[in-house]
Write a structure and sequence with these properties.
With 209 residues, the chain is an alpha/beta fold. Helices cover 39% and strands 22% of the residues. Helix 2 crosses helix 3.
Length: 209
């Protein structure tokens, strides 16, 4: 089974991703959604944890062989990022959502040389807003960002546009289209739910209202 399907299957099995088209979830943003993703759950399952950090390491080695430093986005991607860095034998740093309000007022934590070639690790991509703020912080700190890798993306068109505008290449271990196809194949959802799941992704900000 290809990596995307294997990761999707793992996320479904451990309930890191839940699908509920009939009784949608409400996100913090207020959006109604038939899917909820909490990739932090992968840290509680050793086999899933290992599958993800090894997949990250293989992806980074393939796509970005010139990588010098791995950067995790706080807080969700710190653990999987440091494990991938350990697998690759690379230094690790992480990026806060905002600079500290005391001490050195750092937003990027850890040691790196000016001009360091960095790959950013993220757990989940929705619109890409918070992830790309981490890229901005790394660039402002003097790093060269080669690209970003993430466990999962919803594949929103707005995210693709945001990454393109920022000049950041995104590679993910799995994605929404792969997930819902697998969920249908393995009876996590009914066949008639597929239309609902596809429709949601087209306009998630207005769906269900």
């Amino acid at each position: 089974m290809e990596t995307g399907k294997k990761i999707a299957q793992t996320l479904l099995q451990i309930k890191a991703i839940k699908l509920s088209p009939a009784n949608p979830f409400t996100w913090a943003s207020g959006w109604r959604s038939p899917i909820y993703c909490d990739n932090r759950k992968t840290l509680s399952y050793p086999a899933a944890r290992k599958e993800i950090y090894r997949a990250f390491a293989a992806l980074i080695a393939e796509k970005y062989p010139q990588t010098e430093v791995i950067a995790g986005v706080a807080t969700g991607a710190i653990a999987c990022g440091v494990l991938a860095a350990e697998e690759l034998g690379k230094p690790f740093i992480y990026v806060r959502s905002a600079p500290k309000d005391h001490g050195m007022a750092n937003q990027v934590e850890g040691y790196f040389e000016p001009g360091a070639k960095v790959v950013v690790v993220e757990d989940l991509i929705s619109t890409g807003g918070s992830s790309l703020k981490a890229v901005e912080a790394l660039r402002a700190a003097g790093c060269e960002v080669l690209g970003m890798v993430a466990i999962f993306t919803y594949g929103f068109p707005t995210a693709a546009a945001n990454f393109e505008k920022a000049g950041v290449e995104l590679n993910t271990l799995s994605n929404y289209s792969t997930l819902i196809e697998l969920a249908a194949e393995q009876n996590y959802i009914a066949p008639e739910d597929m239309a609902t799941l596809r429709e949601w992704r087209k306009a998630p900000d207005t769906w269900g209202r």
